[in-house]
Each structure stands twice: as C-alpha cells, then as structure tokens.
Amino acid sequence: MIHGKKVVVVMPAYNAARTLEKTYHEVMEQEVVDHVILVDDASKDSTSDVARALEHVTVHTHPENRGYGGNQKSCYRLALDAGADIVIMVHPDYQYTPLLIPAMSYMIGNGLYPCVLASRILGGYAKEGGMPWWKFIANRFLTLWCNIFYGAKLSEYHTGYRAYSREILEEIDLEANSDDFVFDNQILAQVLWHGYTIAEITCPTKYFPEASSINFSRSMRYGIGCVLTAVQFRLCRWGLLSAPRFPRAR
Fold first, then answer.
1. Which helix (H) or strand (E) holds 22?
2. Given CA atoms 224, 138, 17, 54 in this order, what sign does their dihedral have?
3. pLDDT at position 39
4. DSSP character string of 142-196
5. Number of domain units in the chain
6. Which element (helix H / strand E) includes 200?
7. 148 Cβ contact list (under 8 Å, min separation 6)
8. Is pLDDT of 250 > 60?
9. Which domain holds residue 22?
10. What share of the chain in percent tops pLDDT 90?
C-alpha cells in the first residue's frame, strides 16, 4: 500500500503463457503491489493455467474473446470490486518493464496526479528500442491530432502501460467505449473530458517476438478510431453533438 491506498496490478492477457511468469515475478518484486488480477481473454494457450499456479493472483477467464477493450473493462471492474485505490495496467507480454510501478503508484498515491502514462516517446528512444518505423510515424501523427482536438500536450496516447486512481475509474463510463484496441484512446479522452490531469513518465521500449502487437490492418482500424474519437470529443465540447462517452455536466 501507499499511504493506506491499495495498489492493484491488472493484466489483460491473451496467449501470454510464455512471458507471464517472468512479468509476474518482476511485478511482485515491487513492494508497493498488494494484488494482481489477470483476465484471460479466451487464450488458445495455457495462459490461465500458468496464472493459477502463481500466488496472489486472481484469475478471471472469458469464455469467449471479448477484445482488448472488453478485457480491460473486466480488469477495472474486478480491481474496483477488490477495493483498489490505485490500478496499474501491465501487459503480461513483458513489453513494458514493471520496474516503473512504484514511481507511477506514488505519483497517484501522493495526490499529485490521478492518471499516469508510461510514455515510450518521452525519452526519445522509441525507434532505438525496436518500434517499427511505420508505427512511430503513425504514433506521431495520431498524437498531434489528438493533442489538437483534446487541447492537451501529451507525448503519446498509445502506450498500454498506465495507472488510474479509483476516482477516475468510478466516474467515467467504461461501457460506453469500444471493446477493440481504440478503447485505450477513448478512456484517455474521457479522462480529459472530465477535467483530470494526466502525467507521463519515461518508459523504455522493447519489441521482441513474444511481445504482443497488432498487425497493419488492425493498426489502421485503431488509427481511424482515434481520429473519429477526437472529432467526437471536440464536437461534444462545442455542444454540436451528444454522446454517452462524453456526458454533459449536470
């Protein structure tokens, strides 16, 4: 715990059997972590079996694949039910180092920020860490687009390593978001819509065969979703459109 606040790590998993145990042990080495929740999105490998053999892990398995966004919805619901005050999403594919968990947790636990992103772009080493050139270009374009439409100044919106306060997860409507990868972008849009501040911390980039990554066609769909979400955000802000994702103040 941090100042009496419970820290829960959530892992949205799909076919992560080969890297899960390594990720888990490094997560548990971070002394601030109270509990780990893993949601297996109907993996075709032994992800659930590997997870159930680990201590201090609550395992929930979807009977059918619900998508990356649908997986996160389950993760956050289970974390809140478990009494989490600080929720950190860590992918079990070991692409993001768990060593940043204490820093991200303290930024929320000390009341500095309600949301923290581990940015692969902030330190300037994304390409050196193996990020494909086309993903880097897409990241830069979509981040510029989102910053313009959201009125923010983030270095990226596309990292899968983030931490949220309980307050944020209770206020925003997660179910109004997609069950696909664009969920990552939509939840940040909601955080900004409700007036919360987002902090960033530098995160090393690691790309390797076992690390999960969406293909080009799925990336295109994600990019289009980010563009449309940003436009919807701005139209709702101007009062020209209404959407459950961006409710007007009562």
1. helix 17-28
2. negative
3. 98
4. HHHHHHHHHT---S-S--S-EEEEHHHHHHS-GGGS-SSTTHHHHHHHHHHHTT-
5. 1
6. strand 198-202
7. 230
8. no
9. 7-237
10. 83
Asked if the structure places residue 249 within a domain, the reply is no
CA distance 145 to 133: 18
Question: In the block, which residue shows the tokens 């940015």?
Answer: 119
Instruction: Say if 22 falls within a structural domain.
Output: yes
248 domain-assigned = no
Q: What per-residue confidence (pLDDT) applies to 213? A: 60
Rounded to an integer, the average pLDDT of 94-109 is 95
User: Are the CB atoms for 190 and 173 separated by under 8 Å?
Assistant: yes
Instruction: State the pTM of this model.
Output: 0.93
Q: Give a yes or no: residue 246 inside a domain.
A: no
Long-range contacts of 128-135 (CB under 8 A, 24+ apart): 128/205, 129/204, 129/205, 129/206, 129/207, 130/205, 130/206, 130/207, 130/208, 131/205, 131/207, 132/207, 134/216, 135/219
pLDDT digits (tens, 9 = 90+) for 200-212: 999 987 765 555 5
* CATH (domain of 223): 3.90.550.10
Radius of gyration of the chain (CA): 17
Question: What band does 130 get if pLDDT is binned at 50, 70 and 90?
Answer: confident
